[in-house]
Q: What sequence folds into this?
């Protein structure tokens, strides 16, 4: 069967078989133990774990390790020959970082559309007070799924940018562990499927934070949510090992730490956070699943557990994670500004180190999400001060970007528009952070739409907009074709206007007492008109994103063939053909200057031997 | 594991150095799991042991010594391979596997069924952290033993040489890591009072 | 550089405008507690600083986009400069100073409020707040009164002890500003001083399931004298068995399932129950004495009445009801001959 030659198809078939088989075996074991054979929770739990493994087996993730374990020397992965079409590679277990980068990116966009669609649905309900089109339970399910699905989309997007860019930017042939790299992508897929399937298995009404005891009582969908996030977390961890090793060990000759492209610095800090923090959300969720399945009362005070302990473990990941969301995005901003301003990045060293500082201090602030749990004054104050300190390195970035703009020759192509847009949005998002950090004001705005507006600003400004900028900017690199500039600009303006309509109203009603995570609100508080504005804005964003999707699909198939270096960038990846051959550089590039010496006559960053036509 | 790009990588990158760094990072990440479990134990039950818990001190001591001893034999297996002494390698590997398996059985097949008689219940009280910690550790021991078996079998088929024995090194390092975790778990579960 | 003059001037002017706007705007819900003044003025202070930074950044940003745009026909690159140590130190150190000073100030504000993490003082009115899916109960332990509406005197500080039965909830009256979670297995405290007579709502601020959006209870702040009158009335009710029992039965929803007129609802009727024989689902018969009634309330599964299902009657009344309330409702049942 032709269809079966595509890893994805094989994986899905194997995955379903594994799911069913896992469930059947569990039921048989239960029956043998004298229990009722069917119990939805344990049966589906083992089923989905087995299904995840068979999914990976089906896609071919284990083939090489299996033959290694059986004593054979690992086979070289099949070399790709350029005669056939390239697209089947994207559906297979392919160890090439560029392919994996595109796989991650496309997955991220699909997942983001799913999460966005949920948001657009529940925004309709919120447009007016009273319940019009759904029950409060449905609202809670949609809202919770929206949160976690969007966050999963971010993690995929980060993986996409990291994989596509790191090796090319540092002049390496590929990642340090290509096979592990492919595994980190493919393991995320069943995780995402589980997270999304939570909606169809009963939903979960806990918000993305999944706090017990509510999370223990939530419907079966919660189990899929917890397990799915656990699996996606594994993907993050595996990926981060690769990024760190690659960055430390595989830089081109002459590329010292302070001569790396700035995006790589952002990714390095990000990977450190992912490596260390991700285990915490994994364990927190695993412990809840164990409480649900086996009754182990980690978080049940009646059994000697502690409710607040969960929140400490959870936020020890989830606060640093917000910097996982933004550091790559801020890296993209720093990376693109010099190119479109035609000027060096101002204060390179400080900008690079500020990422590290944000990552480090980010580990010391988690309890600012927990002021209302009654931690006691000493802890509260300590966390307030550390939280405020994060403003300093972030400010360094903003001021350095301003100085980069100063005196430039600025042009406004679509990627640059998105960079500038994210600058404004993230500024507002960041500046709304300290209000949450002060204990006295947080005890007022906590769990209101002020916080909702804060984090949509930071995530759109720190991830969504830079991600779009990156997609437009490196689109010619990935496809060899140019996107439509006109559609790109329409997309940008719709997003910018729509987004602000959406969030400015959120800030305002939040300050006036609109609680978050409520399906219906008290009409006497007068929030109705503002909510209508928010919904309108949301739909403008939705239209913008739809235009983006159309643009991408059309341009990838029939776009104009791109010139080799459309942005006149000095960065190594633009010295390669588009798309680059496997192994990237024929001979390692040599670093001979600083990365952003635009405006200095005769300056160049790397010397790359002219690549021959094919990779091998 | 030869990389896809080995043709390019061979002259420029020391694959062994990459592997080593990767393994260290992976173990750093895994360490967090055990830190979380330790923290959970201390947050829920303080630095002492709650009333009414009588863990089997003798068993605890014996399996701890066993696991530490297995670390020594694993180390000797690795150095044996480094010196090309295949017989010693096989012998020590086998010894390690046996000791690891006995440890695993002692925890899972012996101690767990007895635990409820010592006041340790899966669902409540100190039993929660007891089962969670020994369970998570046992899972790592299990993966370690499986790796050891694979390496042992591959070694018997002549897969490693003094010049190239990364598979042995990685497995043995991982085994030390698992043992080290137990060095922290043992007092937290058995000795504190 | 001469180019700096315009943006600097604009920054100053627009900062003043922004600060004046922040000063005048109604940023928050109308205040109704003494604590609101300090919270609101801290919020305003934060917004002044944030507004100035916002204006500074935006002015230079927009000015640069305009002044340094590539004009038609222009070629070549921008000015080549990398860094400026003085500037970089300045924009690191100035925010550090602001942040540390503000952190100190923020810590002072929350400490001076004496609202969280404080012991009860002698003249506080004590109220035990219990959150459960999806309603609130309020107990005044000193007076021995329990209600579902929160009634408070104006001008007296109230010491709330916050508890939860099932999942986390959060006790929040937006007009009183500060909120605090109610957490199973942990008691939190919050001290507030309502100072505006009026009607407000406690709004649960932590997602707690299906009806989280509707987990709101009325709050009435009364003049001290009116409050005393209300309290006297409540105390009277509480001490009058014929009134206390019906109130408890209404408050905990017993009469939703149990009729008092002999008709059959979800649960057996209370009419003529006390003192009579009840046949149970397991075939035995018991006499409905005080002990049986008590057991039926705190542990409904212990004895199932014939013709009714187990697991219908909530099993958490033991944790939610006080001893006195249980006694009251039993006394009430005994009056229903
Ligand atoms: C991309 C994600 C992202 C980012 C970057 C941030 C950045 C920050 N966040 Fe945010 N935050 C979230 C995502 C993010 N946050 C999410 C998702 C939640 C809600 C989770 C949930 O409950 O569901 C949340 C919630 C949240 C809370 C808890 C609110 C509550 O629930 O009560 C707090 C409290 O302190 C907080 C603070 C901050 C601060 C101080 C920063 C700082 O890092 C911001 C620093 C930046 C600036 C300050 C702007 C630039 C600086 C200057 C121009 C210099 C001058 C400025 C000064 C001197 C002030 N955030
Ligand atoms: C990256 C993260 C991200 C992004 C991009 C968004 C995007 C959006 N978010 Fe989301 N949001 C979160 C992360 C994010 N959100 C998180 C973490 C929460 C917290 C959840 C919790 O409390 O637990 C949250 C909560 C949240 C709330 C609060 C709910 C509540 O508290 O009750 C609201 C309310 O308005 C909201 C709205 C929106 C809207 C309207 C968008 C819009 O921008 C969406 C725009 C639409 C699209 C991007 C998709 C367009 C698609 C189409 C038009 C269909 C085309 C389809 C195909 C081609 C297949 N979000
Ligand atoms: Cu109770 Cu929300
Ligand atoms: Cu945070």
A:
């Amino acid at each position: 069967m032709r269809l079966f030659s595509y890893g994805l198809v094989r994986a899905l078939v194997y995955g379903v078989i594994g799911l069913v088989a896992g469930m059947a075996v569990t039921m048989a074991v239960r029956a043998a133990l004298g229990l009722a054979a069917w119990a939805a929770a344990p049966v589906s739990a083992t089923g989905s774990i087995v299904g995840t493994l068979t999914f990976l087996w089906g896609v071919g993730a284990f083939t090489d390790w299996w033959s290694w374990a059986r004593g054979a020397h690992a086979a070289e992965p099949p070399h790709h020959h350029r005669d056939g079409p390239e697209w089947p590679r994207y559906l297979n277990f392919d160890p090439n970082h560029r392919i994996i980068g595109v796989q991650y990116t496309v997955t991220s966009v699909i997942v983001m559309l799913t999460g966005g669609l949920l948001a657009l649905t529940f925004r309709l309900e919120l447009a007016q007070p009273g319940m019009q089109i759904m029950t409060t339970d449905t609202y809670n399910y949609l809202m919770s799924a929206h949160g976690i699905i969007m966050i999963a989309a971010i993690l995929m997007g980060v993986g996409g940018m990291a994989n596509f860019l790191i090796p090319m930017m540092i002049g390496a042939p590929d990642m340090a562990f290509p096979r592990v790299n492919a595994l980190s992508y493919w393991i995320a897929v069943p995780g995402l499927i589980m997270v999304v399937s939570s909606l169809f298995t009963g939903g979960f009404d806990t918000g993305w934070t999944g706090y017990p005891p509510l999370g223990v009582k939530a419907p079966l969908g919660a189990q899929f949510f917890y397990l799915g996030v656990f699996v996606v977390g594994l993907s993050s961890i595996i990926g981060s090992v690769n990024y760190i090793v690659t960055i430390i060990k595989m830089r081109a000759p002459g590329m010292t730490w302070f001569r790396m492209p700035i995006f790589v610095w952002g990714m390095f800090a990000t990977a450190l956070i992912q490596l260390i923090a991700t285990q915490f959300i994994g364990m927190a969720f695993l412990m809840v699943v164990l409480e649900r399945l086996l009754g182990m009362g980690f978080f049940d005070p009646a059994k000697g557990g502690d409710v607040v302990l969960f929140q400490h473990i959870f936020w020890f990941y989830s606060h640093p994670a917000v910097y996982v969301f933004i550091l790559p995005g801020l890296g993209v901003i720093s990376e693109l500004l010099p190119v479109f301003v035609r000027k060096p990045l101002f204060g390179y060293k400080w900008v690079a180190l500020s990422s590290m500082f944000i990552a480090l201090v980010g580990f010391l602030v988690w309890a600012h999400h927990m002021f209302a749990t009654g931690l006691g004054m000493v802890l509260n104050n300590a966390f307030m001060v550390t939280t405020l300190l994060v403003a300093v390195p972030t400010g360094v970035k903003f001021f350095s970007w301003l100085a980069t703009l100063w005196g430039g020759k600025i042009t406004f192509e679509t990627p640059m528009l998105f960079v500038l847009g994210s600058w404004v949005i993230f500024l507002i998002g960041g500046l709304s952070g300290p209000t949450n950090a002060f204990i006295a004001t947080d005890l007022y705005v906590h769990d209101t739409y002020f916080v909702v507006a804060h984090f949509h600003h930071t995530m759109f400004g720190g991830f969504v907009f830079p991600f779009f900028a990156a997609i437009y900017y490196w689109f010619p690199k990935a496809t060899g074709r140019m996107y439509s500039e006109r559609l790109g600009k329409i997309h940008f303006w719709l997003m910018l206007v729509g987004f602000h309509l959406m969030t400015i109203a959120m800030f305002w009603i939040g300050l006036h007492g609109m609680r978050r995570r409520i399906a219906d609100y008290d009409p006497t508080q007068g929030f109705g008109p503002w909510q209508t504005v928010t919904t309108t804005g949301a739909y403008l964003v939705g239209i913008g994103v739809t235009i983006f999707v159309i643009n991408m699909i059309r341009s990838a198939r029939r776009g104009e063939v791109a010139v080799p270096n459309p942005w006149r960038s000095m960065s190594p990846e633009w010295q390669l053909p588009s798309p680059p051959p496997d192994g990237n550089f024929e001979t390692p590039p040599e670093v001979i200057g600083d990365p952003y010496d635009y405006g200095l006559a005769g300056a160049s960053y790397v010397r790359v031997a002219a690549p021959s036509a094919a990779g091998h | 594991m030869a990389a896809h790009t080995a043709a390019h990588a061979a002259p420029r990158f020391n694959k062994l150095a990459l592997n080593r760094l990767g393994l260290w990072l992976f173990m750093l990440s895994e360490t967090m799991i055990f830190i979380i479990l330790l923290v959970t134990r201390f947050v829920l039950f303080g630095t002492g042991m709650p009333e009414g818990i009588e863990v089997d001190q003798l068993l605890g001591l014996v399996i701890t010594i066993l696991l530490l001893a297995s670390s020594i034999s694993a180390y000797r297996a690795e150095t044996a391979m480094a010196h090309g002494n295949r017989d010693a390698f096989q012998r020590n590997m086998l010894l390690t596997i046996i000791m690891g398996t006995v440890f695993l059985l002692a925890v899972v097949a012996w101690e767990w069924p007895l635990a409820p008689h010592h006041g340790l219940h899966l669902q409540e009280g100190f039993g929660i952290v007891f089962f969670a910690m020994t369970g998570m550790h046992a899972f790592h021991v299990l993966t370690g033993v499986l790796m050891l078996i694979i390496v042992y079998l591959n070694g018997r088929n002549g897969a490693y040489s003094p010049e190239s024995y990364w598979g042995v090194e990685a497995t043995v390092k991982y085994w030390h890591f698992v043992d080290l975790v137990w060095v922290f778990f043992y007092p937290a579960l058995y000795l504190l009072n | 550089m001469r180019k700096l003059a315009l943006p600097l001037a604009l920054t100053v002017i627009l900062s003043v405008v922004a600060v004046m706007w922040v000063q005048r705007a109604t940023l928050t819900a109308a205040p109704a507690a003494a604590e609101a003044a300090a919270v609101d003025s801290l919020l305003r202070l934060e917004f002044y600083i944030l507004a100035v930074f916002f204006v500074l950044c935006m002015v230079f940003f927009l000015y640069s986009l305009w002044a340094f745009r590539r004009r038609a026909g222009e070629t070549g690159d921008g000015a080549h400069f990398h860094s400026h140590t003085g500037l970089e130190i300045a924009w690191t150190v100035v925010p550090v100073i602001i942040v540390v000073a503000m952190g100190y100030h923020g810590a002072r504000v929350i400490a001076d409020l004496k609202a969280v993490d404080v012991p009860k003082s002698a003249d506080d009115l004590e109220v035990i707040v219990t959150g459960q899916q999806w309603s609130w109960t309020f107990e005044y332990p000193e007076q021995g009164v329990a209600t579902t509406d929160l009634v408070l005197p104006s001008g007296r500080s109230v010491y709330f002890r916050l508890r939860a039965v099932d999942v986390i909830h959060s006790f929040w009256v937006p007009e009183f500003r500060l909120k605090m979670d109610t957490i199973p297995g942990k008691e939190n405290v919050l001290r507030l001083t309502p100072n505006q007579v009026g009607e407000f709502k406690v709004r649960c601020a932590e997602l707690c399931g299906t009806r989280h959006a509707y987990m709101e209870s009325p709050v009435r702040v009364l003049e001290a004298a009116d409050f005393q009158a209300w309290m006297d009335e409540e105390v009277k009710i509480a001490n009058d068995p014929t009134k206390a029992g019906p109130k408890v039965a209404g408050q905990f929803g017993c009469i939703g399932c149990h009729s008092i007129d002999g008709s059959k609802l979800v649960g057996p009727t209370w009419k003529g129950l006390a003192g009579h024989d009840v046949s149970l689902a397991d075939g035995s018969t018991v006499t409905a004495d005080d002990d049986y009634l008590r057991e039926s309330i705190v542990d409904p599964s212990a004895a199932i009445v014939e013709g009714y299902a187990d697991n219908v009657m909530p099993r958490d009344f033991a944790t939610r009801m006080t001893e006195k309330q249980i006694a009251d409702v039993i006394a009430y049942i005994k009056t229903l001959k």
